[in-house]
Amino acid sequence: MGFQQGLSGLAAASKQLEVVGNNVANASTNGFKRSRSEFADMYGSSLYGVSSAQAGIGVRTAEVSQLFDQGNINSTGNNLDLAISGKGFFVLKSPSAASSQDAYSRNGAFQVDSNGYLVNGDGYKLQGYTAQNGVIQYTATPVDLQFQTSLISPTATGKVDLGVNLNSSATVISPAPTVDPTDTSTYNSATSVKVYDSLGNTHDLSFYFVKGTPTATGTDWTVNLYVDGTAVTSPAGPQTLSFDTNGVLTSGGVLSNIQYTATTPNGSTTPMTIATVDLSKSTQFNSSFGVNSLAADGNAPGTLTSTNINNQGIIEATYSNGKTVAIGQVALANFTNVQGLQSMGGNLWKDVASSTGGAKIGAPMSSDLGEIQSQALEQSNVDLNSELVDMIVAQRFYQANAQSIKTEDTILQTLINLR
């Protein structure tokens, strides 16, 4: 009798409804990947194999497989929401000290915990690469990503790059003056730049330029350096900048070991040194004085004010002192056979033998890894229209198998009633 076939069909239809129901339930779960039921027929084999006249003994659920196709990406406006466009998974570390195995997820809803770590809603720590002085340090194994939320230390200014244009038509001051910052008649042009001492206090490094008498080979200018209105202690006196007849600086463009005494707000003094002042980009053309380029390192102390994550997963932190530096990079993982990953629930998967070869971890946009979109989340890849159609099909599948059992019952009853 055909009860076996009908019963197996009911079990298969029930499993299909479970899978469809789970898909529908997670249609709004970020990073969720839909599943599908895969069935196989069953035959009872005899001593000599399967007979060509054998009808089969039903169906079985061969596998419930997950489909890792890309979900739509939805903008959220939250800096710590991340979406992967393309292949790859976020690498996460379990909050449990007893578990050393990494977990993998496509759900990029992260937040900063009380210790500055980037974590998901269940406390799993996002893995990546750290940075030193703004340079990403790529290591064989990624580490916990952590924001430095405490006060960052100040850095004294060590280099100043200043490019100016000195007006070739400027009047030569005669006789050659002794520069007095309070008397504009003692110099032709002046400018200043903010520098920092080792405690993060700001000071004004000022440059006073005096034009010399032009010659057949060019013009010499002198520059006097002052910090907070006081002449630097070394090099002492004016320094010479020599320009040829084309207005190009030919010598004197780099000044080394500029020494000054820094007076802090509490009145104490500290000897300080700026390693290099580079004026080599300066020119002397028939144009008004102007600053063409300016850059100085060093910074005051500061606290974290905002973060930004670019499409390569590099995390840039902006501090209250205006400094923006790279503090880390998100790592991604991919697998030869993503279908072999084992679901852990909570939008997490773990690497098992069937994923073939283990995780291939690297930076976003390297190898076959996708790119990061910040302020966005990947939505579930469930198509509700398709799932509802599949639900109707599974229902009809169930009803048809129930009807086959009912028919078999009717036939059996007819046989019992024979006399």
Helices, strands, pairings?
Elements: H1 3-25, E1 35-42, E2 58-66, E3 73-75, E4 82-85, E5 89-93, E6 102-105, E7 111-112, E8 118-119, E9 125-132, E10 135-136, E11 143-144, E12 159-165, E13 189-196, E14 202-211, E15 218-227, E16 230-231, E17 239-244, E18 249-251, E19 254-263, E20 269-278, E21 290-296, E22 304-309, E23 314-319, E24 324-330, E25 332-334, E26 342-345, E27 348-350, E28 360-362, E29 371-374, E30 376-378, H2 384-416
Parallel strand pairs: 12-20
Antiparallel strand pairs: 1-2, 3-30, 4-29, 5-6, 5-9, 5-25, 7-8, 9-10, 9-11, 9-24, 12-21, 13-14, 14-15, 15-16, 15-17, 17-18, 19-20, 22-23, 23-24, 25-28, 26-27
Give the overall shape, derived from the CA principal axes.
Answer: rod-shaped
Indicate the low-confidence ranges by residue numbers: none
Tally of domains = 3
Total number of strands: 30
> What summary fits the major beta sheet?
10 strands, antiparallel
Mean pLDDT: 91
- Radius of gyration, in Å, reads 37 Å
Structural class comes to mainly beta
**Kindly, what is the distance between the CA atoms of the first and last residues, rounded to a whole number of angstroms?**
20 Å
Strand content: 35-45%
Number of helices: 2
Percent range for helical residues? 10-25%
Keywords: Bacterial flagellum, Cell projection, Cilium, Flagellum
Subcellular location: Bacterial flagellum basal body
Domain Flagellar hook protein FlgE/F/G-like D1: 83-142
InterPro entries: Falgellar_hook_FlgE_sf (IPR037058), Flag_bb_rod_N (IPR001444), Flagellar_basal_body_rod_CS (IPR019776), Flagellar_FlgE/F/G (IPR020013), Flg_bb/hook_C_dom (IPR010930), FlgE/F/G-like (IPR037925), FlgE_D2 (IPR011491), LlgE_F_G-like_D1 (IPR053967)
